[in-house]
């Protein structure tokens, strides 16, 4: 579960490494975010901007930027409808724009398969593996 001030790893190539949750935008009954929820984040740590980095310079984020993100992994266990319980090693997110499309062009690690049911098909397609 992702609350206010929770630190998350950013797993896309948008330039951010660590982000802090400052607001849960889309959520259920509680005011905490789970997998597939949109949150507002502030970038706490970013990769330095260099000339050899490929990709669109407009989609690069810097430290102290405020962005939207989708939670793709949580450390808290959650139960799937089939009865299985899934728990990841860390909290992770992918930065998105206002339309819900990812800012980065690559996603480095696994994401939860619940994102496909929540219409984040572009994120699922970019991920190397879904669990």
From TrEMBL:
Keywords: Ribonucleoprotein, Ribosomal protein. GO terms for cellular component: mitochondrial large ribosomal subunit. InterPro entries: Ribosomal_uL14, Ribosomal_uL14_bac-type, Ribosomal_uL14_CS, Ribosomal_uL14_sf. One of its GO terms (biological process) is translation. GO terms for molecular function: large ribosomal subunit rRNA binding; structural constituent of ribosome. Pfam families: Ribosomal_L14. Component of the mitochondrial ribosome (mitoribosome), a dedicated translation machinery responsible for the synthesis of mitochondrial genome-encoded proteins, including at least some of the essential transmembrane subunits of the mitochondrial respiratory chain. The mitoribosomes are attached to the mitochondrial inner membrane and translation products are cotranslationally integrated into the membrane. Belongs to the universal ribosomal protein uL14 family. This is Large ribosomal subunit protein uL14m. It comes from Scheffersomyces spartinae.
């Amino acid at each position: 579960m992702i609350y206010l001030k929770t630190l998350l790893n950013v797993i896309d190539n948008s330039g951010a490494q660590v982000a802090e949750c400052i607001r849960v935008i889309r959520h259920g009954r509680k005011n905490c975010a789970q997998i597939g929820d949109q949150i507002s984040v502030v970038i706490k740590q970013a990769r330095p901007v260099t000339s050899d980095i490929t990709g669109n310079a407009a989609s690069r984020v810097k430290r102290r930027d405020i962005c939207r993100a989708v939670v793709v992994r949580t450390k808290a266990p959650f139960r799937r409808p089939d009865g299985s319980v899934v728990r990841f090693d860390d909290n992770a997110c992918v930065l998105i724009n206002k339309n819900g499309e990812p800012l980065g062009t690559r996603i480095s690690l696994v994401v939860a398969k619940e994102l496909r049911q929540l219409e984040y098909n572009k994120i699922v397609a970019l991920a190397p593996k879904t669990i």
